[in-house]
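Figure caption, in words: inputs first, then the predicted bound structure.
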Amino acid sequence: MNVSGGQATDFDAMIVGAGFAGMYMLKRLRDDLGLRVRVVERGEGVGGTWYWNRYPGARCDVESLFYSYSFSPELQQEWEWTERYPTQPEILRYANHVADRFDLRADIAFSTSVDSARYDEARECWVVSTDDGAVSTARYLITAVGCLSASRVPDFEGMDTFRGPTYHTGQWPHESVDFTGRRVAVIGTGSSGIQSIPQIAAQAAHLTVFQRTPNFSVPAVNRPLKADEIEQTKSEYDQLRQAARMSPSGTNPADPIGHVLELPDEVRTREMNQRWDYGGAGFMSAFLDTAVNPEANEVVAEYVRDRIREIVGRPEVAELLMPRDHPIGTKRICVDTDYYATYNRDNVTLISVRETPIDRITEHGVVVAGELYEVDDIVFATGFDAMTGPLNAIALQGVDGVMLRDKWIAGPRTYLGIASAGFPNLFMITAPGSPSVLSNMMVSIEQHVDWVADHIAYAREHGIIRTEADPAAEETWGDHVNEVANMTLYPRAASWYMGANIPGKPRVFMPYVGGVGAYRTLCDEVARDGYRGFNLTTRNDVSAAGDIDAKTPVPADS
Ligand code: N01
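Bound structure (3-acetylpyridine adenine dinucleotide present):
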């Protein structure tokens, strides 16, 4: 039993999830603040998204030297990345290395899920129930559940009748899957489909891709890292990391060269050619106006369509692959290796299910417009119930018995994407209303974890036992998130950012578009102002039995 803060609880803090957010949160709270912490993780190992997403070709679209923790100078110097973009196995090795190096496993309960958590106002703590039947209490509950961890397969008629194996990219088997000699269907052409399709095509006897919406993809131009460039980056890590923290997206792309509509054709094209040849998502930051001006956006979109025309041999297939229903960048840009060229292979067929959706799945395959495409295996690259899905999957009950999923029925409502009114002492890492999925997640994770750890340290120092987002501050933040999103073209796409991939999910633009640097500054200001917009409650007097005798709201400017 632990009595820090007054009332006895099993733990000072419980953390849901042992991905990169949960691991770092554990380290900060346990090692820097000396708290008693328990992490609950449903997987058998650490790594979160990289533990589950083991599909062929799974690779991060942020460069490895920056898709890594910055909190430990020793760690970032000693770890050696091998490729420009890290593969899933390499990232998982890194996650395991971190867990071992900082002795994190001892405080993680693996193969355990949090079913529900209820805020007990009398005791000012969270009562957390896990699927092993245990019930624990903790002053703080921190969700580090990931934004893309609730995988989703559409409810196709006849799914259960299919006689062969089926896979979801987000829940890939741990043993290797061999498609040699097999006829495979891939349904979905988001990042997961676009990464796995070239690899599956290279192995399978035949691959049929079912595409509902074509996506924009840029080449990764992946390659092994050279020793001298690793050394160079490591010697400049301090400045580079700081620049990433203050940048719009948490990465270090080349600066935009200006407004595309103000530049001569040859300058635009030269810039896009250079960025295309260099590879990676930095292609999207060539110009200042593409995220906000449809005409400017179209210049870049048409450039990519031209590249598709150039790469794909059969014009009718190239035409099907060209996105025309959303501005480029308003769905997460895909970063690929040989994606478009894969459609030149004789063993690959592209079926558009845009006008004629998949009718059903039968014992033998996939039926579209009355025609059966016979396959041996089906890969669902159909995405996730993003951002709110993993949080709503837990029965989170705040004050007055209100469930978070009910409060969020018309869309998520948070203050700073980190807390929600009515849910005291609950902190959510990279939740809706924060930059999260629009950024290098590592940068956003570290920023949130540091902010939460600093707040908990502050609370303990000031005898604060309860931190709760103020409803008015939450509303103002929600309005701001919407206002900034509406200044951009983002809401024009039917994307998972908008909840548009899940039938019935409210259409609300969930991440914060304001940029990680601006957001960090704002969060720091909130903290400096004594946690402006949060209601903080202190315990004046704690009896030996740990009863709460008095609660005093602390003025926001204290
Ligand atoms: O999922 P998605 P994802 N019939 O939702 C289609 C991150 N990530 O797993 O667009 C037919 O993007 C759906 O079609 P439509 C990254 O942030 C990162 O690929 O809804 N098709 C779409 O094509 C990414 O954005 C990395 O019309 C159906 C696809 O399934 C996010 O994860 C790698 C359908 C789902 O695409 C999600 O990517 C992988 C139906 N009924 C993922 N329902 C990297 O770091 C859905 N679809 C590189």
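The chain has two domains: 11-150+386-541, 159-380.
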